[in-house]
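Sequence and structure are no longer studied apart. As an example, we show below a sequence and the tokens encoding its fold:
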Amino acid sequence: MVQATRPVNSPRRTVTVEPAGEPRQYRDGVQNVTFVPLAIKRRHNRKLLTPPPGTPTLTTQATLDASMIKMLGKAFYWQRLIDSGDVLHASDLARKLKLEPGWVAEVLRLTLLAPDIVEAVLEGKQPRQLNFQLLRGREDLLPRMWQEQRQLFGLTAR
């Protein structure tokens, strides 16, 4: 339980955060108090508030993965450079950008994702486990068939 006390002249004097319990609402003098049990978890460099298990959620908010979106942008931009003939191949691109060829190859692999998977990432509707670290850390290659990719990442075709 976390408790913070405010100055005496403040309309709210005490705020309490508890990780468990039942939601409730009551009136404390002139102030309405609403208690909502939430758990605070870290996700990368952000904090994520999650309701306790068994609590029905009314809406699911899209969570944009900024690093994944940036990597997708780089991947398609680099692929366009290769397709247009500005660079001959991934090794040439790595040399021009002063990057490791293996890193460039890992980023370029994102261009092989199914279009609906890319769209889901851009809209923030991808499964939480689908991120760049998962894709780059794969020991086996990404399936070329889009239906197999959807099954692998737990997505259904639109």
